[in-house]
Amino acid sequence: MDYQKALISQVFQVNQSDNISNSPTNISSDQKAETSNSTFIATHSKEHPTSTINAIKVHRNNYIETGINALKIGFPTVYGLLDESDFRRLATEYLKAYPKTCFDWADYGEHLSMFMYDIDALSGQPFLPEIAELDWQLLHIERANDREFDAESFSLMQSHDLTSLIFIPAPGLLVNQALFPLVELYELVHVYNQPQNKMNATVQEEKKLHLNKINNLINNAIKTGVYRSIVLWREQYKGLFSYCDKQAHDAFVGIQKGDTIADVFSYFNEDETALTNWLQQSIETQKIMGINLLSK
Asked: Which residue among 219, 263, 289, 296 is least crowded, i.e. fewest CB within 10 A of its CB?
């Protein structure tokens, strides 16, 4: 880990110099108030250059700190897998590369996963970009519009042709693919999240075995390059995800596209056991919220 820290420190060196550039601005007649303020700021800057620079520093520092805290909240798994100092460096560089343009900080961070692919210092943890994408997707699934579970609607399957029915997906239902063991990495942060000195011997041993499992899965993923499908959904207000096989992957994609139930079932190739298990589990976990008649 020392070489990773050294690399991260080298890549994320923060330039301590403050370069403040003043570019000319054309102001229309509709901007008299702004002109007045600009004139005051310009005059104040000339008369009190030190205080103006200090004010800009304070504003910039507040922006950076607010942004770092927002990214901690939006990307809790990434934060949990990195040291505090490493996460701050990463977040600071991202804030510089992608200044906030959205109104709500909760909507900030869309490009973090792609940004991380270009950071050589993170090459020792190649799973982090996928974890960042997972955090981002779960965040927005949890903010998706509510949808009521309609148990009675499933009786439509007994009274209507399946070609005339469609499944109602859970809020934010999404299917994705990942190379690395996202479920196990997520559990490492959100299940085994106690400090080592506060874990009893049993939990410490479980965490050790879990880490060994993760290392083996990561090494295998790098060697084979085989991607796994994951399905993401929301139960109550909690964003959840799990691995799924190809049949389930295709079925969920079909639901997203608005395929009829008959078409969704066809992805199981007449494997009635697999279909029954998938349907039962999808209803129990509320990945499927109900059934609608297909609009004509």
From this structure: 296
